[in-house]
Amino acid sequence: MPIRWNVPQHASARGRLDEALTAGRGAVVLGPDGCGKSTLARLAAGDFGRRHPGTRIRWVTGTPTERAVPFGAFSHLVQIADIGKPAALLRAARASLDGSDQGDLLLVVDDAHDLDVLSATLVYQLALAGAARMIVTGRAESSPEAIAALWADGLLRRVDIEAPGGGDTPAEVDAFLAELPAGARSVLDYLAVAEPLSLADLSALTGADAIGDAADRGAVETRTRGGASNDPVVYTAHPLFAERARAALGGDGARQRRTELVRLLSQHPPGHLSDRLRLAALALDSESPQPTAEVVAASQQALRLGDLALGERLARSALERSGGLAARLALAHALAWQGRGREADVVLGGLDPAALTEAALMDWALLRAANQFWMLSEPERATAFLRTTRQRVSDAGARTTLDALSATFAMNAGNVGHAVKVAGEVLAAPGADDQAVAWAASAAALCAARQGRFDDVEPLAQRALSAEHPGLLRFTIGLGQTTALLMAGRLDAARELAQQFTDFAELQQPGRAIGEVLLAHVLLADGEFARAAALLGPAAATLERTGYSWGPLSLTLLATALAQQGDIAAAGKALGRAESRHGTKSALFAPELGVARAWRLASMRDS
Asked: What is the DSSP string of 497-520?
């Protein structure tokens, strides 16, 4: 028989939500599953729309399956440019949501605890910019960091509600599912492995009558979300339905449902990048694998979006099936960017460089040299490897790119003069590609700041930023810019710039931690030692597990911040960790290490 979950009215919470929408930018409604958050949001949004008829109301709903895909929940609302900078991707996504000529936007984000990192980041940025009124629902204890920051940073009002009588239990849901007819149950089974599904696709799998029966029995809901398509989509009607249906399916049953879904969806390949990644992820755990070239392409796109875990899964699957160079490079990139240099080196070592074309040799050699220098802490070996590779290539553009990486190596090794010379030659070369320009200009910008040539920093920084290149070079550029501003006494400007690296433009690690190091560096210069230490503690814990030069720097700055506060024991411990990790690859920061030692001695009243 049909089931209707007892949804309380929450009159008090409704009043606070209405007030937050009228007087402010909106609210975050928090509570356990099944307590009526979604109903409350739907009623409040409907009433607001009736009172303000020019308002565009758009819905985004997080689900466990879409959480595994970048921008999964927003695929119907935002366009994603195929570019390689997470911050630029977020700006493009915000711009595609703007539509300021179409009236004010009320964005309802339901089950925000099930958003992927980029979707959660976009929600935060929209709230920070005041670009939309918002109603966000979710569970406080399991929300992504960016969602928790909505109320922690005071951007949206927090409204807590409780479920009377403890809410619905898994046992009650299991009993309900067991009584569903086979057709209605099959609808839930497909949604358990991919939610939502379009009404058209789900009808092709189960039949329209089964969906209608499931809806009549309170198991699913058909919604029109707005945005790029008004085609209806189907969701489960309760958060526990998909979870319990997935548990009942078991591994083999879920795999069979994915296989059937992949075969259907592959007949009309999706155009949106998030949907293509969703299909690629589904196919991984099915009996209908995609062609390896498509899997590699999906892996590369996931990496450009900053989803290293998904990029790794896809690349590993492609490599196991093909052993090809493209899959090998994608997997090595994913591993290296996560700081897993030894694993990346094993992957890169599994081929014969003598059998590679010159273009393939370059792709392989650049990644292997960078991995050797930073992740394996073998800078001498990496530099020698670059020289050997340069002797093997004949193309002038390829040699320029190798020189650009060698300039970056020289800078990190503290050989600033040589780095400036080589970087200048690269930037003057007519055949320098984006990768070469990004490496050379970022190194030149930071070197200029360290040498006191402050007027040179910004033009070099802008040239580096104009070159599309994935990875972490934007932080090298940022350090050059903030250093120049600090040395010029422009503390407020330095803080404003550094803050941009921590305002959830960088949610994936290690980018988040490096952004916090940049901000802490400015806070130290401004005498805010406690705030700097609070940022540097967790950042250093993240970065010292990787091979990045930011690891020793974060520990060095932490030691200084602690010593400035008179915490001698903690400063000594941080300094010891910094010294043990300092070496050629972080020699550029030897002056900071000397300053940390001096402050520790000063805190001990020791000359």
From this structure: HHHTTTSSS--STTHHHHHHHHHH
Indicate whether 247 belongs to any domain: yes
Give the residue from 238, 263, 288 where a domain finishes: 263
- Secondary structure class of 387 (helix, strand, coil): helix
pLDDT, tens only, 233-258: 999 998 889 999 999 999 999 999 99
Q: What is the mean pLDDT of the chain?
A: 89
| Burial tier of 356 (Cβ tally within 10 Å: 0-12, 13-18, 19+) | middle
Average pLDDT over residues 399-427: 97
Burial of residue 280 (number of CB atoms within 10 Å: 0-12, 13-18, 19+): buried
Does 63 lie in the same domain as 51? yes
Q: Are residues 577 and 541 in contact, defined by beta-carbon separation less than 8 angstroms?
A: no
Residue where one domain finishes, among candidates 201, 234, 263:
263
pLDDT tens track for 477-498? 999 999 999 999 999 999 999 9
Which DSSP symbol is given to 108? E
- For residue 254, the domain's CATH number is 1.10.10.10
pLDDT at 461 over 80: yes
Say whether both 136 and 211 belong to one domain. Answer: no
Q: Are residues 122 and 18 in the same domain?
A: yes
Q: Are 236 and 219 in contact (CB under 8 A)?
A: yes
Question: Is the per-residue pLDDT at 162 higher than 90?
Answer: no
Number of domains in the chain: 3
Q: Is residue 74 part of a domain?
A: yes
Domain housing 559: 490-607
Looking at residue 519, which CATH number applies to its domain?
Answer: 1.25.40
79 and 40 together in one domain: yes
Which tokens in the block code for residue 462? 């802008």
Residues 16 and 160 both lie in one domain = yes
In this structure, the strands spanning 56-61 and 105-110 are parallel
The count of other CB atoms within 10 Å of the CB of residue 4 is 8
Q: Is 537's pLDDT higher than 80?
A: yes
Q: pLDDT for 36-68, tens place per residue?
A: 888 899 999 999 999 999 888 888 999 999 898
Which is it for strands 197-198 and 233-236: parallel, antiparallel or unpaired?
A: antiparallel
Q: pLDDT at position 607, please? A: 47
Identify the weakest region by mean pLDDT among 341-350, 383-392, 466-475, 538-547. Answer: 466-475
Q: What is the DSSP string of 477-499?
A: HHHHHHHHHHHTT-HHHHHHHHH
Query: Cis (ω within 30 of 0) for the bond into 269?
Result: no
> 122 with 180, same domain?
no
